[in-house]
Amino acid sequence: MATLFQGLGFNVHGYDYGRSLMVLEDTLAEAERGLSDKRERIVAEAAEYEAGGKRIGEWADDGRKIWDQSDAYSFDLELIDEGLANIRKAFVIALYHSWERMVGQWAEVGARADHAELRGGVEKKGVTPHARLNAVRDLNNALKHNSRQYGADLLDSWPELTPEGFALPDGYRNGNGSVDWFSVITIDDKQMREIISALRASGPEAFPRTAEPVVQETGQA
Question: Domain extents for the chain?
Answer without folding.
Answer: 11-34+87-204
